[in-house]
From TrEMBL:
UniProt-listed CDD domains: AAT_like, WHTH_GntR
Species name: Rouxiella silvae
A family per Pfam: Aminotran_1_2
Domain of life: Bacteria
Similarity section: In the C-terminal section; belongs to the class-I pyridoxal-phosphate-dependent aminotransferase family.
Name of the protein: GntR family transcriptional regulator
Gene3D superfamilies, per the entry: Aspartate Aminotransferase, domain 1, Type I PLP-dependent aspartate aminotransferase-like (Major domain), Winged helix-like DNA-binding domain superfamily/Winged helix DNA-binding domain
Keywords: DNA-binding, Pyridoxal phosphate, Transcription, Transcription regulation
Domain HTH gntR-type: start-end pairs: 3-71
Keyword Metal-binding: no
Length: 477
């Protein structure tokens, strides 16, 4: 889908004004001149000028023409990412992830759920049986879009929620990471603009860097999620091709959008013809009895690429995900054929078999209960042991807590000190290209709450206390 022509022209002019091609109070080309240069009709140019006028970027003077407003303030846009800045973020992320791989380290910084929470024996049986039953032709039969039974199973789960997704629009991938990457590739060209969340899952920043895209980061509220006014402003200012976000249990904040906000968000995207990549990998991990609905459940669903996987809720190591790609399904399949070819066949068969046997919902029920108990235990201890002024999120699902240590505490320093004591944490700098979350930490709550975990959390708390006292002392000197 393309942005309407007059909006494209308005965005081009706005960018030129920001870049000072046209200075405040300077006269813009006349409608006729602009129409000749752009090849657009006079009416389209007039609409573009009127749009900029309504945004206060330019003013019209009767009998004279259009002028740049005296004081244009386009720099209200929250945050821009530039390719050079992103490279640093990726380096840091790589080091932090590597540190978290050591089994002797307490994995509060990990993105993976506790592997002991999953039905390993049942999955092993399903896998052994899948390998035995595999026909010589199954590699061909399960090429993109992927195993039919598995796709039907996934479609049935959408249907149970009242979401109209057919098996034909589902493409099975190697985890959500592949489905998100393919989705980004299908809706953008290098150099395009994408709207993302701030803070965002670091996989978003990496994928954007790989695809050589530009991004506008939209501020998030820990409780209420994305700032819709900022999103509107970003869309009015930049030629945004796609938006990549999480409406349920956002990583790292844990926020879930209210139903009404979900609707408003879809309306904004629909009105501006912006495609949506919806990352919904934590949606099955809800605590309050009802699966939160995705944005995919809307009249805009053909333009929504709904990405998820079994990595967080059933089989972390299997690397099976999918995208319900709407209008983009066949293009996603082609891209997959050109890159990874397909997800592993025996693993797809095993998951299809496991889901068919039943028992998935009973497992999910147990998993949600465990995750909720563990989150409560860790959260209570943070409240008791961290310095006054610390705030901690309270997500109603997933397995992350977002801890704000207070503006003057450097969480990257805490991360380094903690690592020295055998504890990993995910510092806020992993979730943005600049250091605006320098004072925040993301903690993984999925692991067993035992003496080792308690001790590690108390150590972390004492590191923060010491850092706070040190800061206090140095500010009074
Ligand atoms: C928000 C988010 N999206 C996507 C992924 C990747 O999922 P998968 O492991 O299925 O590739 C992760 C994994 O940490 C994640 O946190």
């Amino acid at each position: 889908m393309t942005v309407t022509r007059y909006k494209q022209l308005a965005q081009t002019l706005r960018r030129q004004i920001e870049a000072q091609v046209w200075l405040p109070t300077e006269k813009l080309p006349s409608l006729r001149e602009s129409s000749r240069q752009s090849g657009l009709s006079l009416m389209t140019v007039l609409q573009a000028y009127q749009l900029l006028e309504s945004q206060g970027v330019i003013v019209s003077r009767p009998q004279s023409g259009y002028y740049v407003a005296a004081c244009e303030t386009p720099r209200e846009i929250p945050q821009l990412l530039h390719a050079a800045e992103k490279i640093d973020v990726n380096d840091a992320i790589f080091d932090i992830l590597k540190a978290g791989q050591d089994p002797d380290i307490v994995p509060f910084g990990s993105a993976f759920p506790d592997p002991t929470l999953f039905p390993q024996p049942g999955l092993a049986r399903a896998l052994a049986s899948a390998v035995r039953r595999m026909s010589p032709h199954s590699a061909i039969a399960n090429l993109p879009p992927g195993n039919e039974e598995l796709r039907r199973n996934i479609a049935q789960r959408y249907a149970q929620q009242g979401i109209d997704v057919t098996p034909d629009e589902i493409v099975i991938t190697s985890g959500a990471m592949e489905s998100l990457g393919l989705s980004l590739q299908v809706v953008t060209q290098p150099g395009d603009w994408v709207a993302i969340e701030s803070p965002a899952f670091y996989g978003v920043l990496q994928a954007i860097e790989r695809r050589k895209l530009k991004a506008v980061a939209i501020p998030m509220d820990t409780q209420h999620g994305i700032d819709l006014q900022a999103l509107k402003q970003a869309i009015a200012t930049y030629p945004i091709k796609a938006c990549w976000l999480m409406s349920n249990f956002q990583n790292p904040l844990g926020s879930t959008l209210a139903e009404e906000k979900k609707q408003q968000l879809v309306e904004i995207l629909q009105e501006n013809e912006v495609a949506l990549i919806e990352d919904d990998v934590y949606a099955e991990l809800y605590f309050n009895g009802e699966r939160p609905v995705p944005l995919k459940m809307s009249s805009y669903r053909q333009q929504i690429l709904h990405c998820s996987s079994f990595s967080k809720c059933l089989a972390p190591g299997f690397r099976v995900g999918w995208v319900a790609a709407g209008a983009y399904a066949s293009r996603i399949q082609r891209l997959q054929l050109m890159s990874t070819l397909s997800a592993s066949v025996p693993i797809q068969l095993a998951l299809a078999d496991f889901l068919h046997q039943g028992g998935y919902d009973a497992h999910l029920k147990r998993l949600r209960r465990q995750l909720e108990l563990r989150q409560t235990a860790m959260r209570n201890m943070i409240i008791k042991s961290f310095p006054v002024g610390t705030t901690v999120s309270q997500p109603k699902g997933g397995y992350f807590l977002w801890v704000n240590l207070g503006e003057n505490i450097d969480a990257t320093k805490i991360y380094q000190l903690a690592l020295g004591q055998g504890i990993s944490v995910a510092p806020g700098t992993m979730f943005a290209v600049d250091d605006r979350y320098r004072h925040c930490l993301r903690l993984n709550t999925s692991f067993e709450w035992n003496t080792r975990a308690e001790k590690a959390l108390l150590t972390l708390a004492s590191l923060v206390h010491s850092e706070k006292s040190r800061k206090k002392q140095s500010s009074t000197l």
